[in-house]
Amino acid sequence: MYTDPSLTVSDFMPRLEDEYYPAEEQAEAAGLAIPRIGELAGDSALIVAADGSPGRLNVGEVADDWRLLALTESPLAAVFERRFRRWGILAYVGKHGPVLTVRLPVGRLDRITPDDRRYPQGYEEAILTSRPDLLGEKVLGQGEPSYEAAAGLLPEFIGYVPLSGRSAPNKVVVGEAGCIGVIDAGYGQQRVSSPLFDPSALTGGLTPTKAKRGLLGGHLPGIHYAFWDAAARDGWEEIAFALGGQPETVYVALIHQGVWRCFTLSPLRELDSPGPFFEALATFCGQWERQLSQAVQIDLPEPRLRDASLAAVARALTTRVGDRPKYGLGTYAADIHDAFPPTTLWTANACLEWGLLDEARRTLTYYLEHFVKDDGAFDYYGPAVSEYGQVLDVIARYVRYTGEIDWLRAHAAKVQAIAAHLLSLRLDSLKQPGNAITRGLLYGSPEADTHKETEYYLSGSAWAWRGLLELARVLRDHAVGAPFTPPGELARECDALREDILRAARASLVPGDPPFLPPYPGAATPFPSMTADTLASYTNYRYWPELLSAEALDADLADAVLEYRRRRGGELMATTRFADGLDDWPFAHQARGVLAADRVDQYLLGLYGHLAAHQMPGTFCAYEGVHIRGTDHRTYMADYCVPAQLTVPLLVRWMLVYEERDSDTLWLCKAVPRRWFAPGRHFRVRNAPTRWGPVSFRVSASDSGVEVEVVPPPRAPEQLLVRVRRPGHRVPKGAQLNGHALAFDSATETVTIPHPAGSPHLRVAYE
Fold first, then answer.
1. Poorest-confidence range of 65-79, 113-127, 282-296?
2. Is residue 593 within 8 Å of residue 548, measured between CB atoms?
3. CB 556: neighbour CB atoms within 10 A?
4. Is 749 left (phi over 0), alpha (psi -120 to 50) or beta?
5. What is the pLDDT of residue 189?
6. C-alpha distance from residue 82 to each of 186, 252, 394 (Å)
7. pLDDT value at position 281?
8. What is the pLDDT of residue 628?
9. Does pLDDT of 190 surpass 80?
10. DSSP assignment of 523-555, as one string?
11. Which residue intervals of 12-92 are DSSP H helices?
12. Has residue 529 got a pLDDT over 80?
């Protein structure tokens, strides 16, 4: 880490310019005048000027800052580019106007800002030894959490980025210097082995001093990288994407001194002209936009959150091989990891929350048919007890979101076998003496890494309770009979199991400030810090987060867990510490527990902390574990993995649309930042699936107040709550629903819409 002795740890709070979402872009985009085309012929296009006068432009020539790059036959268009200082755009223009535009994250090469941050001496040690969340306190000390406040507190994280689509069995990646190939399989390695494409061989020995790494369109699974050699005052760009097929084709464009050289890989072949490259790019963009158009549509004041969410879902889907799950790449691409339940769980959960219901069905179907044995056990070397409950939970939610009872019946034998497996563990536990503290809790593994360290983990029992309870509710609501355990019997067993969980938790609780709840009864010595040893680290990164997300604990017990982790060195910007690094792939469990406790600022801190510290800033690529320490940049400790990638889309969905599990309550805007309600801001969500049906809403803020237009789900929940978080010090003076006065709860900043039907129009006025 580069240091500056004039800086102090206490006062250090850098604010970086946003290179990937520059402040000037909105105005520049609004002023764009895309060229008009009269005709296309040969290597030139007849363009029509603003005054209506025609002019002919040859490929490579520039008019009104638009450079003509190529002519394409499919689509029939002229391809133009326009570059601003920090971003750019490709425009495919036909005779009737634009047919496709693609945002480019790179503008002018010579304007790329180097990451030359300096940090106080002793900064890393201060972070690692602080029990309170030193960086989290810095962000919260600036006011409401934001990406801008979090982004500069650690050096940039850089790793490889997956490029292949789901049809490819051997995934290629892009290394940090633009080299394309297959990542080494060694744990924690970063080398791209057997390169298929090496830009250094084509750029005359340039040594980049600055770089920028982003995604095409902001969220598509194709890259746009740029590198600049300050001494040579020269640089190059690289655009690459994979077009699905058997085999898939990887396309690469190298742009050096204004010349586009285009290639396909395996084997490396240079194209005669850029035209085929741009035709393939149009196909690539069209395929992905069609697929992602089926997802929940959101328009937010912070486009980074939308892009990060869609990029994550797309990347998770491309990590598969067909429908077969892959936990990640590198080490994690090995077949032994395919049955790891969290890959399927996070993928199915994210697809459900983002409306990709067919993908969720395919994900769950594959796992049930290939990795669940007839006796309900998972065909994996170290399944956790909690994962059995989580699989039942996501199956139940799929049925609730889709109404696909026939799908449930088709897989009834496997689903019932999973439930029976948990019930058998429960029955074994009930054989203990009546006064045993662990009586009724489920015995088994807590995690693949520690699968031999079997115990009565509270997290396993809590998720067994949750999964069986959600299955019971679906069986009751849809009157599904044999071969399932009767829902009434299942629900009664769940009630008894929760009583045993709470009894054991309270008997195990160690008094203190805050109290300490061990991960299992018997581990009664409070951890001096949440990274003190292996048990503390695993409790911090997985056992406690899963215990919280099951929502089996009473509020005071959940608060004890949240506070102990927060105050005993378990967090960095609310994300998850693991030894001297970050291990955030289970972080959505922690975030769900934080949101259930209605700790909104802590929730937002974790969201922006994860984005800033655990993912690459322009590609949003996430890894299982990343280093806190770094010099000019930070690297990864453990390879790219799907669950870490899907953290942001889950958190963004819940901040906007959140279902309470154990009450008939639907929240809108539960954890939306206050600044989104400032005058002039607006945001919307369309067709977010819920267990009552899809919900949509639009929020518009003005000087006088906030208006919320809602399209409620077809089956109205008992409570539809809308949170309107007043920006700054503004004081609400009242609320109206369709013109009639309605109570506004100032303490929780919420309005309850009674019996929602039609299109309720809510208005909260400010003094």
1. 113-127
2. yes
3. 10
4. left
5. 61
6. 42, 20, 45
7. 98
8. 96
9. no
10. --SPPSSTTSSHHHHHIIIIIHHHHHHTT-S-H
11. 25-30
12. yes
499 to 495, 508, 655: CA distances (angstroms): 6, 14, 31
Domains of the chain: 25-104 (no CATH), 161-292 (no CATH), 663-766 (2.60.40.1180)
Mean pLDDT of 634-645: 94
Q: Kindly report the pTM of this predicted structure.
A: 0.97
pLDDT interval class at 188 (50, 70, 90): low
Integer Cα distance of 368 and 400 in angstroms: 18
Q: Are 646 and 316 in contact (CB under 8 A)?
A: yes
What end-to-end distance do the CA atoms of the chain give, in Å?
49
How far is C-alpha 687 from the geometric centre of its chain's CA atoms?
Answer: 19
**Per-residue model confidence as pLDDT tens digits over 225-270:** 999 999 999 999 999 999 987 789 999 999 999 999 999 998 999 9
- The pLDDT value recorded for residue 703 is 92
Q: How far is CA 429 from CA 442, 473, 596, in A?
A: 6, 24, 29
Over residues 692-720, the mean pLDDT reads: 95
In the three-class reduction of DSSP (H, G, I as helix; E, B as strand; rest coil), residue 455 is classed as: strand
Q: Are 105 and 218 in contact (CB under 8 A)?
A: yes
Could you tell me which residues come within 8 angstroms of residue 176 by beta carbon, excluding any fewer than 6 positions away? 158, 159, 160, 190, 211, 213
Q: Which residue has the tokens 């629900």?
A: 491
φ, ψ (nearest 5 deg) of residue 569: 75, 25
Angle at 471 between CA 410 and CA 354, to 5 degrees: 80
Cβ-proximal residues to 218 (8 Å cutoff; 6+ apart), any chain: 103, 105, 303, 307, 311
Tracing tokens 């939308």 back to the chain, one arrives at 306
Q: Are 309 and 648 in contact (CB under 8 A)?
A: yes
Q: Which parts of 412-564 are beta strand (E)?
A: none
Q: What is the dihedral of CA 35, 41, 44, 49, to 10 degrees?
A: -30
Q: Which residues pair with 582 in a beta bridge?
A: 577, 626
β 269-270/62-63 pair status: unpaired
Task: Report the alpha-carbon distance of residue 740 to residue 383 in Å, rounded.
Answer: 54
